[in-house]
Amino acid sequence: MNVKAQGLLNAARWIQDTYGERALIDVLMKCSEPVRERVGSGIAINWHPIEEFVEFLGVAEQVIGRNDGRIAEQAGSFGARVNMKPAIVRISVYLLRPEFLMRRVMGLWSQFNDEGEMRVLAFDEEGAEAELISIRNPSWLFCCSVTGWARELAKTIGKDDATCKHVQCRGRGDARCLWELRWS
Questions:
Q1: Which of 40, 102, 144, 172 is most buried per CB count within 10 Å?
Q2: Gap between the Cα atoms of 59 and 74, Å rounded
Q3: What is the C-alpha to C-alpha distance for residues 4 and 23, in angstroms, rounded to an integer?
Q4: Is 55 found in the same domain as 87?
Q5: How does pLDDT run across 168-182, given as a tens digit for each residue?
Q6: Which residue has the higher pLDDT, 60 or 94?
Q7: How far apart are CA 42 and CA 47, in angstroms?
Q8: Are the C-beta atoms of 134 and 109 separated by less than 8 Å?
Q9: 12, 32, 67 — which closes off a domain?
Q10: What pLDDT was estimated at residue 22?
């Protein structure tokens, strides 16, 4: 599977902004040469192997995290905030129903990932359920970044108290990749 480089570049930027340049250097020094090169000279709209993104997240989890997926999740949240331009999306909520907007944004999956599809299975006033399908080799750390991204999407459509749990993960041996989003 290939993904747009913006996820990797946003994750690197988030680490530098949050933990400092030294932390980013420490992470990069433990990454492979292709990952270091991509972070140093990558172009956000170019495709690259998802393994590079997952490697970066895994090293970051080891160097500055606790190997619990929180670093990957926070990097995904940051990427969503950067990429969704919250002010513009919030304005459009007044013109569109939040459910439609969430389905529309999740439907853009293929513009950033060359495999799989993100679907909204259910949506109501208390929450939503989403599933990622058709990924050949899912990665738990990639799914952690999607958790952060999905939570930020819910916040962007006006659900400021949104929480998101990755309740099933094929990367961890479950039958499917499923997220539950909750809000009041």
A1: 144
A2: 14
A3: 24
A4: no
A5: 999 999 999 999 999
A6: 60
A7: 9
A8: no
A9: 67
A10: 98
